[in-house]
Amino acid sequence: MPRNYDVLIIGSGAGGGMAAWVLARGGARCLMLDAGPAFDYDRQRVLKAVYDLPYRGFGRPGRFPHVTQASEFNANIWADEKQNPYTYDPGDPYYWVRIRAIGGKTLLWGRQSWRLSDYEFKCREHDGFGENWPIRYSDLAPYYDRVEPMFKVSGRKEGLPQLPDGIYVPDESRDSGCVQRFAAACAKRNIPVTKMRRATGTLASSANVLLPAALESGNLTLTPNAVVREITIDRNTGLANGALFLDRRSKREYHAKAGIVVVAASCIESTRLLLNSKSRQFPDGLGNSSGVLGHYLFDQFYVKSGVLAVVPEARGGKGGRGLMGGGGYVPRFRNLDRREKGFLRGYAYDFGSGFTPAAKYFPAYGEELQKQLDGAAGAGFSITTMGEVLPRRENFVRIDPDVKDEWGIPAANIRQKYSDNEHAMARDAMETGIALCRDAGFEVIASHTQMAPPGESIHELGTCRMGDNPKTSVLNAHNQSHDVKNLFVTDGSSFVSGGAQNPTLTILALSMRAGEYILEQKKKGLL
């Protein structure tokens, strides 16, 4: 790696891809390192029958014990936990879901594209808990405005302060009868309902929206299969000067040099990298003079199908498309104007209809079970809860000195558990969901408050948080390290709070803002 680049970007997902899109097109000579390969969809994507797969679609046992989304059909995308181990308290498991490939987790993201609001950015002002972000919604709104058209986000404008409107491809699709009935039940309780807001297109990933334009500029060099071990520091200046990385296949080590380093390897991986980047100047990890690096890990908790119902009029195959099908989104409605319940913050619902409930929900077997399944075919209605998790210092990522990955890099030890606040929220979500379904005339057949393990939402956030005070945060308002001015972190680890909204749109907007700040500072000679 003889060439000295203007910017080194670590990671090719939402944060890294957007940084490359801004910086390379802005004239900066960029090198991007990613731990995984690039996929050739024309050659590598094939259709196979289940009986042609050795494990009939379930995959080799033990390879992805914490990736519930994995199957034998997509096994080549997920990070193998035998090669990439991590540790946790056995009594409180953490499900760390990773993709090591060009495009990162945008290759398989759900494309839900929600803006945060000042209920998140200024959360402490609202309810007194935690810390505010160093920015307001108005600071990020212009970047949301530009990201949404790039990813062709569809949706419907509602004028809700807790879920700001954006620049959408209008969703004019008609709601089915059961969705209209559910929305009417919500309206009677002053609970809003809207369409999903999602990026459209066949992939809508960094790999096909962001990286092609960056490469076409001629200013981006993309290096796959580069497993970064640590960020290096100039002993004289204390500034970052590049990174040591290993070729994934040969394990040969290289040093990539650059004047600016942008870390966007995803929340926990970026934190692991920074904690492993120790030096005389930073014995506790790069940019960690505050001691905050690694702390305040959080996500959104999920209660999958927390309320399951059947639409009576659709039983026996009588539903049809007019009554059944489709879904929607209920944004946060708790604790907005006043403290309503015995918990802080709020939750959202994702609901859908037109499916057949699983056999486990029917207290029968044999012919009677088949009869009940046939009767409920296509008549199902379910609600999944996404709840805000409070950032707490006791939830953290640190280095496990006794466990290393296949390339000899010390692994992450992850500690996170949900608090009484999240459990109280889940109970309220279930009780309210049951009431709404019954108000709509649905038959509730099952309900629960069992949250998926932390991490399973794949929305890990917060371990490299922003803030105005260098003693209580790692980054400033532009995703720039307080300690190392030429070091930036542009993934979800920079979040201070997260609401119940999926974080990808905000990661893209923050990275765009940080990239333009880097170009501006370079032009002024400050970087």
Describe, in plain words, how this protein is organized in 3D.
- 24% of the residues lie in helices and 20% in strands.
- It is an alpha/beta fold and 527 residues long.
- It has one domain: 3-Layer(bba) Sandwich (FAD/NAD(P)-binding domain), CATH 3.50.50.
- The strands form four sheets. Strands 1, 2, 7, 8, 9, 10 and 18 form a seven-stranded mixed beta sheet that branches. A five-stranded antiparallel beta sheet has the order 12-13-14-11-17, covered by helices on one side. It has a three-stranded mixed beta sheet with strand order 3-16-15.
- A hairpin with a 5-residue loop joins strand 15 and strand 16.
- Helix 1 runs parallel beside helix 13 and helix 5 crosses helix 13.
- The longest helix is centred in the C-terminal third of the chain and has 20 residues.
- The mean pLDDT is 95.
Mean pLDDT over the full residue set: 95
The proportion of strand residues reads: 15-25%
Distance between the termini: 22 Å
What sort of overall outline do the alpha carbons produce when their principal axes are compared?
Answer: globular
**CATH architectural label:** 3-Layer(bba) Sandwich
Work out the number of β strands.
18
Low-confidence stretches: none
| Count of individual helical segments | 13
Largest pleated sheet: 7 strands, mixed
Please state the structural category. Answer: alpha/beta
Count of discrete domains: 1
CATH superfamily: FAD/NAD(P)-binding domain
| Percent range of helical residues | 10-25%
Q: What Rg do the Cα atoms give?
A: 24 Å
- As for the CATH topology, it is FAD/NAD(P)-binding domain
CATH class equals Alpha Beta
